[in-house]
Amino acid sequence: MKKQKNDKLVFWLFLAPALISFLVVVIIPFIMGLYYSMTDWTAIAGVKPTWVGLENYKAMFSDTSFRYSFMRTFLFTLLSVVSINVVALTFAFLVTREIRFKNLYRAGFFIPNLIGGLVLGYIWQFIFKSVVPSVGALLGIEAIENLLILADPNWTLFGLILAFTWQYAGYIMMIYVAALLNVPQELLEASDIDGANFWQKLVNITIPMIAQAFTITSFLTLVNSFKQFDIILALTNGGPTAMYKDQVVNSTELLALNIYNVAFKYNNMAEGQARAIIFFLVLSIISIGQVYYNKKKEVEM
Fold first, then answer.
1. What average pLDDT does this structure show over 41-55?
2. CATH number of the domain at 54-300, out of 3.20.20.450, 1.10.10.400, 1.10.1760.20, 1.10.3720.10?
3. E strand or H helix at 184
4. What phi-psi label fits residue 80: left (phi over 0), alpha (psi between -120 and 50 degrees) or beta?
């Protein structure tokens, strides 16, 4: 009995630093943020915030730029999740085959993930502004030469998706590589004997066997796409402008950047905090729903 008490004491002592850190860094700031979102908080020292109730939330939902930012964030997330996972799975299939220099390919595909978002944004800004037009001129293709990806609202979002996919696909690839290497080779060899082609093996053996990897990669890509900030800040800073319901909006000002601008650029801390609360709730609901759905599909497979 005494040994069990000592074991429990040791357990809680080892757990205490993580629990205290989580409480101080996450739980308490979240509760304070919830309170500040219902005040006219300005973050100015000595100025006591006044309770305003749900006024910040009303102002937020009546703001056209916020609704547009919400819509564009969902579109960016959907396209990014599909793009990253397709590219990453393709890379994973490539580097798990018996080909020369496959370890070099793995390292090469993963390296972009080591580049910081701000640096990566400036790299792709140079590519879109200088390299793409130069390639178009070299090939004599006027459409590519005159393609202003960062100046055209219809193309800029796809430019962001391309840059984000280039950065993140290598990281997701490594998860797929680990999953593919754990697929029993006996099953694949037996399917070869039975005359199964590549697609039959992929659908009936490989995908069901790596279902857990899909749950992890879908969660990671969804969360990181939804809260993307640094690449957008460096590459477009929310621009270019576009028209939405007869109002001028920033075509790539996704939710994270929108919250930052409201809080720090326009110095409206309370409304920015309210937007952050909604951002957190929406992302939590979507993430939990995605994990639940994927886990359910794992059982069915």
1. 87
2. 1.10.3720.10
3. none
4. alpha
For the CA atoms of the chain, what is the radius of gyration? 24
Please tell me the distance from the alpha carbon of residue 88 to that of residue 217, in angstroms, as a whole number.
10
Helix/strand/coil percentages in the chain, nearest 5: 75, 5, 20
- Specify whether the CB–CB gap between 133 and 94 falls below 8 A: no
Which pTM value belongs to this model? Answer: 0.91
Share of the chain above pLDDT 90, in %: 57
* pLDDT at residue 3, rounded to an integer: 67
Q: What is the pLDDT of residues 241-255, one digit of tens each?
A: 888 888 889 999 999
Q: At what angle do helices 211-226 and 64-95 cross, to 10 degrees?
A: 140
In this model, does residue 219 exceed pLDDT 90? yes
Q: Give the DSSP per-residue string, 7-75.
A: HHHHHHHHHHHHHHHHIIIIIHHHHHHHHHTTBT----TT----B-TTHHHHHHHT-HHHHHHHHHHHH
- Residue extents of the structural domains in the chain: 54-300
Long-range contacts at 37-43 (CB < 8 A, ≥ 24 apart) = 37/270, 37/273, 37/274, 37/276, 37/277, 38/270, 38/274, 39/270, 40/270, 41/269, 41/270, 41/273, 42/267, 42/269, 42/270, 43/269
Residue 109 confidence (pLDDT) above 70: yes
Question: What number of helices (H) and strands (E) belong to the chain?
Answer: 16, 2
Q: What are 177-212's pLDDT values in tens digits?
A: 999 989 888 888 888 888 888 888 888 888 888 989
Cα(167)–Cα(40) distance, integer angstroms: 39
241 close to 68: Cβ distance less than 8 angstroms? no
